[in-house]
Specification:
The complex is a heterodimer of chains A (357) and B (165).
Chain A (H helix, E strand, L loop, with lengths): L5 H6 L18 H7 L4 E6 L7 H9 L7 E4 L11 H10 L4 E6 L5 H13 L4 E5 L20 H14 L15 E6 L9 H11 L3 E6 L3 H13 L2 H4 L1 E7 L4 H10 L7 H9 L3 H18 L3 E7 L7 H8 L10 H25 L1
Parallel strand pairs in A: 1-2, 1-8, 2-3, 3-4, 4-5, 5-6, 6-7, 7-8
Helix pairs in contact in A: 7-8, 10-11, 11-12, 12-13
Chain B lengths: L1 H9 L1 H26 L4 H16 L47 H11 L22 H10 L18
Helix pairs in contact in B: 2-5
């Protein structure tokens, strides 16, 4: 469709429509446009349902409308079985949303993964997040066979090769490559802390164009990490989005800290939650404050907001934090408005053409 | 054995020296042996490699050895067999998320590499394994590849940056 207003030109319209790929861009997607235009971006993630009902996916996805720039569709996170990332993305792209498909190396080998990459691109998915994946032993099917044929860095290189060199790992040519904006994850808060920036460099050298980090609850640690990343020139080579989230209570925070490896939560935050009268509200307040602080850190391009089971508050949290300034991410309402306007102009033109005859 | 493996990582600099000193000789001998005997001595040589590297590094015989590039810590001991680690799940005490009693293989790798003369090579990305090489000898593969340069019977894909064992 035609691009209707300057704002829409920058942020794009519907990933389901063939958006023109801008010069220097690797995908047709809205998310890449937002980042490359220099906007501070927000992404969130959607918990996939344990159901085959597509309406349930859209019910869960619609709460993000107008408050985030892209939504991650998780791929069996925590090694628990849910509706697939591919399935979520299929339903979401049909409804005009801009999903980030997550591909974990735990469950599929390189044959399946390369096939899925083409499939995702064919459905209008423009963004992919490459993950190694949680081990099967932490999930609900610990008896499953772990695959781990590729790792995240190999996966990034594979997708980059398919996209830029247009062939499979085997060398067989692709008639058309997957135009995907490639991302990966980083955890600056787990050992070896001093080498985490090297790990980031490896992923960016392999081809990662955006990065989404693990939960950040410790701004001092983030400052150290980002200072190293900026010094190494990494913040200019990839868009770094820092993860943060809402904590429902001190108990949840303690559980996360001891049961989810790699999650680092300082004692000060747990104390605040402990003393709060309404811990859930306090958790959201902490999240808003963290977002404001993260935005001030040099080299950060956006925030990845993980509000597990508190998705309905994402919009309010984003508004309160003010990190987007005046910018409002794409929403279905705006899109409908522009489409109606376009349709009416088209029919006016057609009528005019008929009158001419 | 776990304790020997930790010892090896602690002495990565020493083992690197031993490796650099002995590697040309070993490869020279293996090239001679493979020319003379063809494949008939492959099994005992593979068993010797598995025994020696198994004792020192808990080597899993992936067939594409990168020990000298990973601080003398074998990445195949990672439960996710990550060749470019660590993953994001390392515990605060540096232990593995899957096996809490084991030090993260990649925490050990970066630690070992920091002591090595050519430790910087750990920054190079490794591509995923060729699964067909599993159980085969890295030494013999190297000896054959470097010995048969004129034949070039080992096609180098640009993705597999194979290095010294």
């Amino acid at each position: 469709m035609n691009i209707m207003s300057p704002d829409i030109e920058i942020v794009g319209t519907n990933p389901g429509d063939p958006l023109p790929q801008l010069e220097g861009h690797v995908s047709y997607g809205r998310f890449e446009r937002v980042l490359r235009a220099g906007h501070f971006a927000i992404t969130s993630e959607i918990a996939p349902p344990d159901s085959a009902d597509p309406d349930e996916i859209m019910r869960r996805a619609n709460v993000f409308d107008g408050s985030v720039d892209a939504v991650n569709a998780t791929d069996g996170s925590g090694a628990n079985c849910h509706l697939s990332s591919m399935g979520m993305c299929a339903v979401m792209t049909r409804n005009g949303l801009s999903p980030i498909i997550q591909i974990s190396c735990r469950d599929r080998n390189r044959i399946a993964i390369q096939g899925d990459i083409l499939g995702a691109a064919a459905m209008g998915v423009c963004n992919v997040l490459c993950l190694s994946g949680d081990d099967v032993s932490v999930g609900d099917h610990p008896e499953a066979k772990p695959v781990f044929d590729l790792d995240s860095v190999s996966l990034i290189r594979t997708i980059k090769m398919m996209r830029d060199e247009r062939h499979f790992l085997s060398g067989r040519k692709l008639a058309s490559g997957p135009n995907l904006f490639i991302g990966s994850s980083i955890n600056p808060f787990a050992p070896p802390i001093e080498n985490r920036v090297d790990q980031l460099a490896k992923k960016i050298n392999a081809g990662a164009e955006f990065i989404q980090s693990q939960y950040c609850f410790d701004i001092a640690m983030l400052n150290d990490f980002m200072a190293q990343a900026v010094d190494a020139g990494l913040a200019e080579r990839a868009f770094i989005l820092i993860g943060t989230g809402t904590l429902a209570s001190a108990g949840t925070a303690r559980w996360l800290r001891s049961n989810i490896p790699g999650v680092h939560i300082p004692d000060a935050i747990i104390e605040r939650l402990d003393q709060a009268e309404d811990p859930r509200a306090e958790g959201r307040k902490i999240c808003v404050e963290l977002m404001q602080q993260i935005k001030e850190v040099a080299g950060v391009s956006g925030i990845h907001l993980m509000a597990y089971r508190q998705e309905k508050f994402v919009n309010a949290i984003v508004q309160q934090s003010g990190v987007l300034g005046d910018r409002k991410p794409w929403s279905a309402d705006d899109y409908d408005f522009h489409r109606r306007k376009l349709d009416s102009e088209k029919s006016a033109q057609t009528t005019a053409a008929r009158t001419d005859l | 054995m776990y304790s020997v493996r930790q010892w090896s990582v602690k002495r990565s600099r020493f083992l690197e020296g031993v490796y650099n000193f002995t590697n040309p000789g070993i490869l020279f001998c293996l090239r001679g042996i493979t020319r003379l005997f063809g494949k008939s001595l492959d099994r005992p040589i593979t068993a010797l490699e598995a025994g020696l590297k198994g004792f020192l590094f808990d080597c899993q015989m992936c067939g594409d050895c990168v020990l000298s590039k990973t601080g003398m810590s074998c990445p195949m001991n990672c439960p996710k067999t990550i060749r470019n680690g660590p993953c994001g799940g390392v515990r605060e005490n540096g232990m593995c998320e899957v096996k809490p009693e084991m030090r993260c293989v990649w925490v050990a790798a970066w630690d070992g590499a920091s002591r090595m003369k050519d430790g910087e090579v750990i920054r190079e990305a490794q591509f995923a394994l060729d699964y067909r090489q599993k159980g085969k000898s890295s030494w013999l593969r190297l000896a054959r590849e470097t010995g048969d340069v004129e034949k070039t019977d080992a096609p180098e894909t640009e993705l597999s940056e194979r290095g010294p064992a």
